[in-house]
Each structure stands twice: as C-alpha cells, then as structure tokens.
Amino acid sequence: MASGSEGALTISIGMRVSPEPGAIELLRRYDTALNYAINKILRLDLKKIGEIHNALYRELKEWFDLPPRTAIDCYRDPCKCKCLEE
Q: What's the burial of 74, exposed, middle or buried (CB within 10 Å: 0-12/13-18/19+)?
C-alpha cells in the first residue's frame, strides 16, 4: 500500500529470505534496485510493461547483479501498485 505525505511514496513488498549472508546481500541489492526502478518508471512516465522491461531489465541484471527472475520481479512489483498508474 502507498502511504506518506505529498511527494513521498512508500511501497511495502513481502518476501521470504533465508538468513544466509548471500540471501541478505541479495535482499539489499534488490531493495536498492527496486528504488531505482520506481524512480525510473516515474521519471520516464513508463506505462506499458514492454516499455518498462526495455528500460530496466538489462540495467537491473548488470548494475545490481540480480538473477534474471529477480530482475523481472523488481520492475513488476511496482507495476502492481495503483499509485504508479495515476
């Protein structure tokens, strides 16, 4: 759900993570990549999933070292939020 004051956007996403150090590091990279994805989607006013994929997939995989499926989830999670559609 979105919450916060005007100009601020907060999205909560639940996920299960193993307490192993590698999983915790992946979660940190995912968090940073998710913020990057949200900002880019809003800045470029991307509306269609194909546009979003073309703009973000490679960057999320390469810059944030995310596995392919995690990179896809990283830009699809914000797309589910109604507040990004306004």
A: buried
C-alpha–C-alpha distance, residues 29 and 66, integer Å: 7
Asked if residue 31 lies in contact with residue 23, where contact means CB atoms within 8 angstroms, the answer is: no
Alpha carbons 30 and 22: distance in angstroms, whole number: 12
pLDDT in tens, 4-33: 455 665 656 666 766 788 888 988 899 899
Q: What is the DSSP letter of 4?
A: S
* Alpha helix stretches (DSSP H) within 9-48: 21-43
Q: Measure the CA–CA gap between 53 and 60, rounded to whole angstroms.
A: 10
CA dihedral in degrees (11, 34, 67, 16; nearest 10)? Answer: -30
Q: What is the pTM of this model?
A: 0.73
